[in-house]
Amino acid sequence: MNFRKLGILDVVKEHYIPHVTVDLNLTVGDAYERSYTVVGSAHMNGVTEKPMSGQDPDESVVAVEFDRGEEIEEEVPALYPRAASDDNQDGFSVIGDGSISDTFLHTEAAVDSIADQTIERAEFTITKPVNGDNEEYIVYAALDRRYLVGENPKFNFSAAKPARNIIITHTPEKYITVGDAGKLAEGEFNFMSTAKNRVNMFNVLKMRFDGQGGWNNNKNQLDGGFTFLQKMKPDEELTGEDAKLELIPGYKKVTEITPNEKYLITYIPKENIRRGSYFADEDIMPIIILYPRNSRAGQTKLVYGMRTVTRKAQKTLKITAKGSGDARVVVNHIIYNIHCRDLNLEMRKNEKKFFADVSVDDCDVVDSNVAKVESYLQKTPSLFNCERTAKDSLSGYSKVPNTDVNMSGAEFIFASAGNSGDEIYTIQSALNGKYLLNDSGARFFGTSPTQHTVKRPDGSLGFEIMRSADDRFIFFYYTKMQYDATSDKNFVATANGDTEPLIKRGNFTFELLEKQDYPSDADQIRGYKRVTSITSGKHYLITQVYNDPEIGEGRIVLYPGENIQTWSKLYRDVETPGVLLTAIGNENDTTTVTIDGYEYTIKITGACDHKGERYLVGTKEPGCEEEGYTGDVYCADCDEKIADGQKIPAGHDVPVWSVTKEPTFDANGERSGTCSRCKETIKELYTKEEYANEQLNDKVAEARAVREADYTAKSYALLSAALAKVDTVEDT
Asked: Are residues 493 and 528 in contact, defined by beta-carbon separation less than 8 angstroms?
């Protein structure tokens, strides 16, 4: 058994540290075991899914056994959720009678609904940025892995590191205009983005965290004074007058920020705020805390007293290697990347296996007639996060690929939603099932099927995507180097420093890459090829190509993220050096191969059965006058050709046709258009058969859309029977 680079878990042993990544190397039959103690909210998280694909760990590679441990009881601060009924309403109206008891929900069901939203998840680690003034910080909720953006209460937190820092100050008047009546009380802080375009305040009447374009000096409406509570050390104890600073058990009030410590950001209700009947105990201080959620109600929680919860603390984890391959397991917020190797390899003739990060100098083959090892560079399509806006540059994208996402997570299913020829589709994420809504901010993707018109402008190889209801376009915005949307192509975004309209500061056409049955050398991304027409029900990547004069050409992929920064991922092929082991012997031949210190026994089991993956060679797109070719089919396991390809007839590519003579059921018509390749004007018949088929499809679509309630039972039964026969009718 060989464990290598276990890292931090070797050091902490039985203790628990969340959000670390552990690399395990196991041989088949061996097991990795670990026992540790969890304190706090993480007891609720056991073995969860793989972050990359949303599927359970591959049971053919690893078996996972997890014992949650013995139950213990613990006293913890009691959290209460805020009512969400007015979450999207601005102003100063109140909920119920305006008291704390009417604003915060205190039924058993309400409290249980946020059982996993413990106070530990509201802790923010505050650090100093590399570049920034004395009062500038980075504020990060480690357990939720979200950064405080501090510019809009509806979208206050981001998984991606924001471009701007957070100012935390006792004197906001140094940065914005604050009247004498609005100045902070002694020891209070305010926090705002360094953009200084929004200021965080507490809406006293609505009793929630809020944001304003400027400072409100009426503290009965908006109060900008917040109290920061620093998490105390496990053995720290306050005595005498200092004991009064421990406002929440384990958290003390501070007047200075110490970098790299954890804090709760809180609002202490003033005496004029009524408690109501439920939170009436004068011996218990109600404290309202900022929670890392992107809604006004979701980010506002009340802490009031203590409650008893059941914790499951002692954990035992066992991961057993069952077969060769890679697996990812997440347990209690710890990611285990597991590489399992089988030292007894049964391989078919010409079958290949890749070993990453190994030099051919560290390999040895006993019988070179049975197997060979050679240097190899493996290319893997990968996605890179957008970390910040970078005007007209790809430099804002990470230099390190995001291994928690893959290309299939960026696929969208285009489903026809209109009559024939309408080019109207719903666009649904294959990853999370959400639809492209094309609204602003957090509502760019959602659960409501929304129709978009997707068509190619005349002479273009790309597609425009426009919401059908109100002509709202998706575009790629060069100023931010991210995907965005607008209803006005001629709008000039002066707030972003633009002096030209969006039509010149962005690109409104996108290359759609259709998922292929087999990858080919003609794919723009391996397994995805650019197309000039859409097939309903198929999967597509929505992409934009940008040529950065310093970095080079890059392809940016639309991703179903939660905000503008996470919508955009940069595609790159990641090259991994290593060695390729190839079985070249005959059936029943055996040999021993040493690779990077591991000794493998190789046995040739026979010829390849060609049942694995395949790829295409020699694909060629058709031209206006030159035939294309689908490509010959090869086995990916042994590289043997298993099928010939087919010729693709030559022909022009006309994205937009204009009807110059209308067809009828009895006579052909005519149409013309411009070829996107040769730019010639093409004329052709618009046949009466095409016309009849389109008319029939439209009538069928209308019939399928009728409501049963509008028909008698007999009429609707006849209609349903007729529609059932439609799909069985052959074209004539």
From this structure: no
Q: Reduced to 3 states, what is the DSSP secondary structure of residue 572?
A: strand
* Angle between helix 688-704 and 713-726 (nearest 10): 140
The pLDDT of residue 1: 44
CB 36 within 8 A of CB 15: yes
- pTM for the model: 0.61
- The residue written with tokens 């258009």 in the block is 673
Q: Is 465 helix (H, G, I), strand (E, B) or coil?
A: strand
pLDDT at 582: 96
pLDDT tens figures, 206-243: 999 988 888 999 999 999 999 999 999 988 999 999 99
For CA atoms 102, 105, 106, 109, give the dihedral sign.
Answer: positive
Tally: H helices and E strands in the chain: 6, 50
Q: Which two tokens stand for residue 305?
A: 């007293």
The residue to which tokens 């009546």 are assigned: 181
Do 416 and 536 contact (CB within 8 A), yes or no?
Answer: yes
Q: Are strands 424-429 and 363-365 parallel, antiparallel or unpaired?
A: unpaired
Residue 608 and residue 349 in contact, taking contact as beta carbons nearer than 8 Å: yes
* Strand ranges (E), 89-207: 124-127, 136-141, 146-148, 157-158, 166-169, 190-193, 199-203
Half-sphere exposure of 346 (CA within 13 A, CB side): 6
Taking only the tens place, the pLDDT of each residue in 501-552 is: 999 999 999 999 999 999 998 899 999 999 988 999 999 999 999 999 988 8
Quick one: residue 266, left, alpha or beta (phi over 0 = left, psi -120 to 50 = alpha)? beta
Cβ(299)–Cβ(293) below 8 Å: yes
List the chain residues with pLDDT less than 70.
1-16, 39-57, 153-155, 311-313, 419-421, 441-442, 459, 705, 726-732
**CA 453 from chain center: how many Å?**
25
Residue 108 DSSP one-character state? H
* In contact, 157 and 166? CB cutoff 8 Å: no
Phi, psi of 455, deg, nearest 5: -145, 160
Cα angle at 330 between 324 and 332, to 5 degrees? 145
41 three-class SS: helix
Task: List all residues 6 or more positions away from 301 whose beta carbon is below 8 Å from its beta carbon.
Answer: 79, 80, 81, 82, 114, 117, 122, 288, 289, 291
Per-residue tokens: 710: 């509008």
pLDDT at 7: 60
Amino acid at the residue 499:
T
DSSP per-residue string spanning 16-33: --SS-EEEEEEETT-EEE
CA-nearest of 150, 153, 154, 152 to 162 is: 150
- Are 578 and 354 contacting, i.e. CB atoms less than 8 angstroms apart? yes
Backbone angles phi, psi at 703, to 5 degrees: -65, -40
Q: Which of 206, 174, 204, 207 is nearest to 189 (CA)?
A: 174
8 Å CB contact between 176 and 195:
no
Condensed to tens digits (0 to 9), the pLDDT of residues 613-652 reads: 999 999 998 889 899 999 999 999 899 999 999 999 998 8
Residues sharing a CB contact under 8 Å with residue 371, sequence separation 6 or more, in sequence order: 347, 365, 581, 582, 583, 584, 585, 591, 593, 602
In 3-state terms, what secondary structure has residue 567? coil
pLDDT of the residue at 54: 40
Rounded to whole angstroms, how far apart are CA atoms 477 and 497? 13
> How far apart are alpha carbons 615 and 634 in whole angstroms?
5
Q: Among all chains, which residue has been given the structure tokens 């080079």?
A: 552
700: alpha, beta or left? (left if phi > 0; alpha if psi -120 to 50): alpha
Token pair belonging to 509: 């056409």
